[in-house]
């Protein structure tokens, strides 16, 4: 037993080594940098959860990993407090950066696309891509000497797989979904080797399943990890570079070895270790059970007696408390309570009843009910007594008037209930002041009369739609008398026949009416619908229904609204829409004719002038061959003519290209790349282009329209944006072709641009509308501009 305990102690010491944090270095910062740090005592850190760089213990809510430890060192050096935020992917991290939710992120690899979002520090860690094989010896493997008989597993798609495919053409690569699948393929004999980075190898090598694997080579394609910070805070990037340089290389090497160095199962992971530990815990558990059993036997008899005594006390205290609460509730109730004997004399009255009737405390006791209700003679009282005593229907209720002590009258609601208490019998009279309720009822009646008068004179059909409870069917509870002037039916005809407003809707618009009404009822929101209705004489009229919703706590809901006759406005609107459609069709036709004319002129300029210039160049060359040696001046003239002809050739090509670029015949994707390269050559602004590999062919009109929109957008960037980079992306999204043009320029107010006289934006929007698409512009001053065009693909060509 002693030897087992010593073994357990040493195993625990080996399994949990102590990790010493590096000493806090002193940063050599300039005064502006120190002031910037003092102005920002808290910074937000974004972490992508991926072991062993960053991992979250859900139970303890603690972060750990190589990047977490590095950032903690940096925080100690910079004397700032970190606010940690975790994300599941780099895409979510970049989305949080755009939303302004984080300030820096460790462990990122510098990419061309990331340069537009981040400021990257110098590399602080090198993560090698390793070649893993069976543990057969210490000999390394040369990738150039491998052939197809030694397949290699690698995660695809990934930059590592692309690098191996481009560098080592002799390799036979087996794509897998992840690093674990690559190692399992190696263990199952499907491949000879597997490629994965140090971080994933250090994580997986701790598992017993992969203990027999070893590193046999390095493919020479390392990942350089950096700390990325916000581009709009260059001071933070410079401070991070200084802080990283201040960390001793030895500490970074120890960080690399602790988290990324491959390790194998320790003593604590062996079966014998856990067997001994289980035996020790079993002995301790048996001893604890014996002690607990002995203690329970000693306490059981005392607890039984204590519980019995406590139970009796609780029953007695509960009865006394219930009696006190009952008496207190009756005495302080806002409802008047009278206990009346069979002879109509009051035996008890609470304070509320005395205050309602205007008497002093105790003044109502032993007085007959006839003093407060003159009509309550003995015969009527005995009739009520017998009815209440023999009735099984519950309390009797009615409304009456009671006389106060000062002679005034109190409108009251009376409820009678029979009570037998011991050997005595009483009739309990519950008295409630009905003054406010009667005033409210009178005000409600007056309000309803006023509402009916107003509804009858409104130049529309006033209605109320009611739903008694959640899930119940709604019905029209009120329709104003103005319905006869609008649709020719009286309100009683629409309500009594159940026709309501739904029966007036045109059959072709009934589905949209029911859909809008159902949506308003389910969402419990305001109701709005426009459509056609039929009057009594069969005339088609346009109606606009607007109703506001009111939801009550008991689940009841009402919609109060008006049906307006908008026939004249709707006819004007339809005529205007038809006129706009005709103008847009005419504009599209003129634009198509213009593009066709440009294409014809371009072909004639290119073909006709090209042929003439070619002949002229041949004639000049023939003259040079025949007569240039006879006269030196003539030779110089002929050389000058050839240069002019070459310039004219280039001018003809430029004119033809400006009218219609020939690259459009190769497809819109090639045309976009060609135009982007011309833009870069002309402005020296980098233009990143992303187009799909396989793109459905477009009609010539749509291809030309998208190309002209791209030309106009790039022209605006060159003239106004003052951008550093431009990104053009063409993609297919849900049967639509999307062209997205983004720049990081100074931007502008998109709403002001739409209201202003920018004919370039108007022209692009009209051109897209003529193609049956839509254009969206997103821009804010100082935040760049994004222009997005969506155009439907041709169905027959997409198929």
UniProtKB/TrEMBL annotation:
<dbReference type="InterPro" id="IPR000700">
    <property type="entry name" value="PAS-assoc_C"/>
</dbReference>
<dbReference type="Pfam" id="PF02518">
    <property type="entry name" value="HATPase_c"/>
</dbReference>
<dbReference type="Pfam" id="PF07730">
    <property type="entry name" value="HisKA_3"/>
</dbReference>
<feature type="coiled-coil region">
    <location>
        <begin position="569"/>
        <end position="596"/>
    </location>
</feature>
<feature type="domain" description="PAC">
    <location>
        <begin position="527"/>
        <end position="578"/>
    </location>
</feature>
<dbReference type="InterPro" id="IPR050482">
    <property type="entry name" value="Sensor_HK_TwoCompSys"/>
</dbReference>
<dbReference type="InterPro" id="IPR035965">
    <property type="entry name" value="PAS-like_dom_sf"/>
</dbReference>
<dbReference type="InterPro" id="IPR013655">
    <property type="entry name" value="PAS_fold_3"/>
</dbReference>
<keyword id="KW-0732">Signal</keyword>
<dbReference type="Pfam" id="PF00497">
    <property type="entry name" value="SBP_bac_3"/>
</dbReference>
<dbReference type="InterPro" id="IPR036890">
    <property type="entry name" value="HATPase_C_sf"/>
</dbReference>
<dbReference type="InterPro" id="IPR003594">
    <property type="entry name" value="HATPase_dom"/>
</dbReference>
<keyword id="KW-0808">Transferase</keyword>
<feature type="signal peptide">
    <location>
        <begin position="1"/>
        <end position="20"/>
    </location>
</feature>
<dbReference type="InterPro" id="IPR011712">
    <property type="entry name" value="Sig_transdc_His_kin_sub3_dim/P"/>
</dbReference>
<feature type="domain" description="Histidine kinase">
    <location>
        <begin position="600"/>
        <end position="795"/>
    </location>
</feature>
<dbReference type="Pfam" id="PF08448">
    <property type="entry name" value="PAS_4"/>
</dbReference>
<feature type="domain" description="PAC">
    <location>
        <begin position="396"/>
        <end position="446"/>
    </location>
</feature>
<keyword id="KW-0418">Kinase</keyword>
<keyword id="KW-0175">Coiled coil</keyword>
<dbReference type="Pfam" id="PF08447">
    <property type="entry name" value="PAS_3"/>
</dbReference>
<keyword id="KW-0902">Two-component regulatory system</keyword>
<protein>
    <submittedName>
        <fullName>PAS domain S-box protein</fullName>
    </submittedName>
</protein>
<dbReference type="InterPro" id="IPR000014">
    <property type="entry name" value="PAS"/>
</dbReference>
<dbReference type="InterPro" id="IPR005467">
    <property type="entry name" value="His_kinase_dom"/>
</dbReference>
<dbReference type="InterPro" id="IPR001610">
    <property type="entry name" value="PAC"/>
</dbReference>
<feature type="domain" description="PAS">
    <location>
        <begin position="447"/>
        <end position="524"/>
    </location>
</feature>
<dbReference type="InterPro" id="IPR001638">
    <property type="entry name" value="Solute-binding_3/MltF_N"/>
</dbReference>
<dbReference type="InterPro" id="IPR013656">
    <property type="entry name" value="PAS_4"/>
</dbReference>
